[in-house]
Design brief:
This protein has 203 residues and is mainly α. Among the domains are: 61 residues, no CATH class; 53 residues, no CATH class. 65% of the residues lie in helices and 4% in strands. The chain contains nine helices and two strands. A two-stranded antiparallel ribbon has the order 1-2. Helix 8 runs antiparallel to helix 9. The chain binds zinc ion (ZN). The site of zinc ion has 6 residues, from helix 2. The site of zinc ion (ZN) has 6 residues, from helix 2. This is Cytochrome P450 94C1.
């Protein structure tokens, strides 16, 4: 003699079945959407050039090629779909990311872990409240009149006693090429060292 299951057991079983069905379906479509958005098989001009390294024929390094693409882009922004990367030189985008909606662009756990040994839990390697607290501290510290005055004196002295002498010297040698990018990079590095420690590193 067969015993029919009570109604509440049937309802419970149906509910569990529907719950697992929707959970599995939702997870599956989420994963599908994630991979579709990654465009791992994208064959646009930029991705194709990246995959085949055809850019090597015209440019010495990746940065030069990216700079060329950014110059050509009307929005000053390019996408490397297969890497999931977006590169921008548009000031409005940069302001949006680092000021207006900064919270939308966390560095993330991967970035923090990779640079953890070098940057620790400092302002350049944290997100959220920890970042906000350190930013306020840095702003108070670096915005003071005494620090700005100190930096102004050091930068002025560096310009007067070193940078202008170097440029004068280069101007007297018309046949020699002066790498201004290298000069300004060294100038910035020297100033940062002197403002922080009072010393300039000499290699
Ligand atoms: Zn692409």
């Amino acid at each position: 003699m067969e015993v029919e299951a009570p109604m509440w057991v049937l309802i419970q079983t149906s509910f569990l079945f529907l719950f697992f069905f929707f959970t599995i379906s939702f997870s599956f479509f989420s994963l599908l959407l994630y991979f579709l958005r990654m465009k791992l098989w994208c064959n646009c001009d930029i991705c194709h050039s990246y995959l085949t390294s055809s850019w090597v024929g015209k440019f010495d390094n990746l940065c030069d090629w990216y700079t060329h693409l950014l110059r050509q882009s009307p929005t000053k922004t390019i996408h490397i779909h297969i890497l999931g990367n977006t590169i921008t030189a548009n000031p409005e985008n940069v302001e949006h990311m680092i000021k207006t909606r900064f919270d939308n662009y966390p560095k993330g756990k991967t970035f923090s872990t990779i640079l953890g040994d070098l940057l620790g839990r400092g302002i350049f390697n944290v997100d959220g409240d920890l970042w906000r607290f350190q930013r306020k501290m840095a702003s108070l510290e670096l915005g003071s009149v005494s620090v700005r005055s100190h930096a102004f004196q050091i930068v002025s002295a560096e310009i007067e006693h070193r940078l202008l002498h170097l440029l004068d010297s280069a101007a007297g040698k018309p046949n020699e090429i002066l790498d201004l990018q290298d000069v300004f990079r060294r100038f910035a590095f020297d100033n940062i060292c002197k403002i922080h420690s009072g010393w300039i590193l000499v290699a």
